[in-house]
Amino acid sequence: MHTPPTGAGHPDQTGASDLGLLRSVLREFCDEQIPSPHPRPPSDDLDHTLWRRIAQELELTGFSVPTEYGGAGFSWGDQAVVFEELGRSLTSLPYFASVALATTALLATADDNAKARYLPGLADGSRVGALATTDDSQDRGVRAWSVEQRFRLGGRKLFALDAQYADLLLVSAKVSGSGALFAVEASAPGVLVEPMNSLDLTRGVAQVTMTNVAAELIGEVGGAPDYLRRARDLANGALAAEQVGGIERCLEMSVAYAAERHQFGRAIGSFQAIKHKCVDMLVQLELARSLALDACSSAAAGSETLSLAASSACAFATTAYRAAAAETIQIHGGIGFTWEHEAHLHYRRAATNASLHTSARQLRETIADSCCTNPALRPNSADPVTQ
Length: 387
Hints:
Helix content is 48%, strand content 16%. By secondary structure, the chain is α+β, with helices and mostly antiparallel strands. Strands 1, 2, 3, 4, 5, 6, 7 and 8 form an 8-stranded mixed β-sheet that branches. It has a two-stranded antiparallel sheet with strand order 9-10. 47% of the residues are buried.
């Protein structure tokens, strides 16, 4: 049975050799157990057998959840390796939705009761979580009201990542004009989760419609913006790492095909144009990996520059992944356009990631705001280079 490696001492002190072992174990597991990427309609049922193995055999669903809530207690910096390997395999499991979004939103709150109630199930994989925060622009969004000291929700959320697989929904709503976060059981009366069409054929989105649904307030009324901001920053770092894995896979496929495909009596990899494409991909991969690791390490260290690091990493990785996927299709030529080849699936995911939960424009606005509001990031006016 595979288990995550244990670092010397506290999990936050996991060494490079341990992370290398973790990567090796995950790479072997994904190559052997996760089917070759193929289009999968969002309405398909969750692969419960594979999910249980991810959750219980590898203990990945609780990898960075504190031990007091049943998790392994590893740092978000270590978690980057997990997202990289799952991104490389283009898995359709709802790992990102449950771990990077729902779990981080819960951890961002100071509600110990809610954490104790919901985190153990998310950590051991017996429950799948999803975050629903995008309001339908055609209505007033999800509204919350109190009935006999209990909250009820009504309204609709769109583009909730992998919500069709979720047992627990974390939903943002307005209470007297203030943002609040609520926990909703996906099986509760009045909840309707409908898969939506998506460009990404390996990861689903859904719309969640709620009609007078019972909900539990998480944290405090008015606290949702802070909870979701923290979850967004962690998710941006995770998404950057996941896309690093995707870029790496695109480069692997491109180099292998360039070595075996011959034209004019020689491998196409010997042509300068193909060499340039592969080298550019490698450079983008290393830059994206450095930024992603910095973002996840900033999260682990509780750095004040987390928002800047995570936004920068995600913005760069999103652009690099889309470019790498496009070049992979070009290098493969005709076969790269076929339905059966996985190249188009990487391009679809890369294109969808650009607006998955934070648009590129919003990411760059966050970067600009961070530079403007944090004195440590401002150029030194005494520095002749900035004058």
